[in-house]
Specification:
- This protein has 97 residues and is α+β, with helices and mostly antiparallel strands.
- It has one domain: Double Stranded RNA Binding Domain.
- Helices cover 30% and strands 23% of the residues.
- The chain has two helices and five strands.
- A three-stranded antiparallel sheet has the order 1-2-3. It has a two-stranded antiparallel sheet with strand order 4-5.
- A hairpin with a 5-residue loop joins strand 4 and strand 5.
- The chain starts with 10 loop residues before the first strand and ends in an 18-residue tail after the last strand.
- The model has no long low-confidence stretch (mean pLDDT 92).
């Protein structure tokens, strides 16, 4: 099997003292007690996720469903969706009822 390395974006949030690592292009996340632990756990989860998709024979189908594109040159590989913008949007959220 030919492998092609790709970098996927991972956002890390601090939620009530837990660090949550989330990859929007795969909708995959995990958490840890520290920033480093969350990053390490994400790497493990990412590898397990990809291995599972390959074993099930669903890699192409799942990547396409997440907006990835198969590129043929310089050699066949997958590319994740391109980030166009990242910004904060204001919203009014009611407090209590």
């Amino acid at each position: 099997m030919i492998e092609y390395r790709v970098a996927v974006p991972v956002n890390v949030f601090n939620e009530d003292g837990q660090f949550v690592a989330h990859c929007p292009v795969l909708d995959l996340s995990t958490s840890g007690r520290t920033f480093e632990q969350a990053k390490e756990r994400f790497q493990e989860v990412l590898h397990m996720f990809i291995e599972d998709l390959v074993e099930q024979g669903t890699l192409n189908e799942v990547l396409q469903s997440y907006g990835w594109h198969k590129v043929s040159k310089p050699r066949p590989h997958w590319t994740p969706p391109k980030l166009v913008s990242s910004s904060a949007q204001e919203a009014s959220i009611p407090v209590g009822a």
